[in-house]
Amino acid sequence: MNPNNSLKITSVDLFKLNIPMKFPFKISLGTSYEANNVVIRINTNKDIYGLGEACSSLRITGDTQNTVYEAGILIAKVIKGKDPLAIDTRMKEINQTIVKQTQIKSAFNIALYDILGKATGVPLYVILGGEKRDIFTDYTIGIQENLKTAINEVKNSIDMGFSAIKLKV
What we know:
The protein is an alpha+beta fold.
């Protein structure tokens, strides 16, 4: 599905992004004080690029920011020079190149779809068969020191406009 057969991946930029959390986020697996992500930018020969982001979590996905970054370097070598609009083929190559590392694979998938939307001039929600609608999300509250603090966090999330709350216990 390439309306422009000459579109090719020329390079991939990877950036480590460390985002301090305003408050520590505590769950049963441990406490997080910052998000250690990797942002990717897939560049093409037509000044179209795609962005994706991977969130590492040793406790949940078994990867670290460094392993995600290194996996990204390997994946970038595999897809360089190839058609970014052949997403299924690119993802098959990526999945055959590296085991696990679901976060960075997802970042590449998102970036490829970003390129597809930009190259065709069609919003991704149309490409993916959906309709434009409001995004509904919850507010997740980590484990709190006591009940009073938990109740205050719930009240604050309601005040921020959230109608769904997930409370870690």
